[in-house]
Amino acid sequence: MTRHQPSLPVGAFAAAAGVNVETIRFYQRKGLLPEPTRPYGQIRRYGDADVARVKFVKSAQRLGFSLQEIAGLLQLEDGTHCDEARVMAEEKLEDVRAKLRDLRRIESTLRRLVADCCAAEGTITCPLIAALNSR
Fold first, then answer.
1. Which of 6, 17, 85, 118 could be 54's S-S partner, Cβ–Cβ 3.0 to 4.6 Å?
2. What is the signed CA dihedral for 67, 22, 51, 70, rounded to 10 degrees?
């Protein structure tokens, strides 16, 4: 099996991963992405594995995982730690469900306050402002 030499300069790497260069640098500072060595007089080069790693990080972020949680997932990336990854996903799922419950409560309260505003035309005190002042 032939192994491809890293050949992408940071700008091309960022573009291939769908992020900007500052995101690459940030991930490196956070320990999510190793910084390749720079041969004397040359620029750092990145490869396909680096692109895949950044895409993994972005995918995990879209699912709501924090960078700290993603660092934990990256430690499991060899695929042999399915139980540990499942536990992390279950915890994230419960967190998402709790946020959904909060959002539904907020939606219900706002819906009621908007309806109160519409029903209170011509009054001096706005029901929405009054409700917010009383909380």
1. 17
2. 0
